Amino acid sequence: MRKIRNREDVMKKHTADGDVYILAIESSCDETAAAVVKNGRQVLSNVISSQIALHTLYGGVVPEIASRKHIEKINQVIESALKEADMTLEEITAIAVTYGPGLVGALLVGVAEAKALAYAAGKPLVGVHHIEGHVSANFIENEDLEPPFVCLIVSGGHTHLVIVKDYGEFEIIGRTRDDAAGEAFDKVARAVGLGYPGGPKVDKAAQGGNKHAIEFPRAKVGDNPYDFSFSGLKSAVLNYINHAKMTGEEIVVPDLAASFQNAVVEVLVTRTVLAAKEYGYDKVAIAGGVASNTALREGMKEACQKAGLKFYYPSPVYCTDNAAMIGVAAYYEYIGGSRAGWDLNAVPNLKLGER
């Protein structure tokens, strides 16, 4: 696949080929989403049908229920996205879909729908890696952002530190050795009674707490300074909660939430800024659901300012799962020559950089 190296090359493609309109579909977990994206940076529509209220009843995502809900909602969401963009399927240049990683049943709903639409309308099909989509969310509102840069990807299932070498080209330099950051948020929130989804609940509770009230450990991973580990921190918080319950000690939830969150954020920020400085990049971005966390955004912004680095982040609506980010990623894949065949399938454990 030929890489598109800079904005000048992109504009040349526009001049030669005309505007590119991507209809994107996202169904990797518990959001059924569709969007229309023009030329990789302009979101014409971004429709999301969330299942959070449904899965809250079970304390987390139930895969079978998620798949059934996707089947129920996907056509409505696509129709709404086209209507909001004031476009017909015939006017769309290509159809894109998340094909991994994620819940296999949920992914299959989106992949099957995208293949059917592309085949029926005679449109090219582009398969998109979900994490590439999260990284690409940064391009929507940051007109000056272009590769290369360092990006921290933090979500319920992933914690990666990557160098974005080019559009769609990544080098993973750090990752979690155990729990993802978002997973730790969910488990701590559940243990302290804040409920699901854990990230926003902890963030909200922490805003009224003292982040220095409880000293929780910061894990050091020996052989790679850019790797992460959150299982020890999670265990320390759970042990603190259990000990308090056994001894009758009051648990000040805002203080606990703020102290836990501070421990997570400190590690994420420190290693991301270190990577940018050591690898010689002057731009840092964050992506994924946890990128909407207030403390992480503020902490990274402050650290980047001190280090003389430019800091980029998406609006919260583009941090959580959405199809606009998939449309952005698909655009750069499309103009670089990437096309999926009719044998495109869901790959639940797809690694970043795999095809």
From TrEMBL:
EC number: 2.3.1.234
Cellular component terms per the entry's GO annotation: cytoplasm
Binding of substrate, residues: I153, V154, S155, G156, G157, D186, G199, D203, N293
Cofactor: Fe(2+)
UniProt keyword Iron, yes or no: yes
This protein's record includes keyword Transferase: yes
The Gcp-like domain, residue ranges: 42-327
Gene Ontology MF, one: tRNA N(6)-L-threonylcarbamoyladenine synthase activity
Cofactor note: Binds 1 Fe(2+) ion per subunit.
A Pfam family it matches: TsaD
Cell compartment(s), UniProt: Cytoplasm
One annotated GO biological process: tRNA threonylcarbamoyladenosine modification
Record-linked InterPro entries: ATPase_NBD, Gcp-like_dom, KAE1/TsaD, TsaD
Residues that hold Fe cation according to the record: H130, H134, D321
EC top class named in words: transferase
Keywords noted in UniProt: Acyltransferase, Cytoplasm, Iron, Metal-binding, Transferase, tRNA processing
Catalytic activity: L-threonylcarbamoyladenylate + adenosine(37) in tRNA = N(6)-L-threonylcarbamoyladenosine(37) in tRNA + AMP + H(+)
UniProt family annotation: Belongs to the KAE1 / TsaD family.
Entry function: Required for the formation of a threonylcarbamoyl group on adenosine at position 37 (t(6)A37) in tRNAs that read codons beginning with adenine. Is involved in the transfer of the threonylcarbamoyl moiety of threonylcarbamoyl-AMP (TC-AMP) to the N6 group of A37, together with TsaE and TsaB. TsaD likely plays a direct catalytic role in this reaction.
HAMAP family named among the record's database cross-references: TsaD
Record NCBIfam families: gcp_kae1, T6A_TsaD_YgjD
UniProt cross-references to PANTHER family, sorted A to Z: TRNA N6-ADENOSINE THREONYLCARBAMOYLTRANSFERASE, TRNA N6-ADENOSINE THREONYLCARBAMOYLTRANSFERASE, MITOCHONDRIAL
Name of the protein in its database record: tRNA N6-adenosine threonylcarbamoyltransferase
Protein species of origin: [Clostridium] symbiosum ATCC 14940
Designated gene of the protein: tsaD
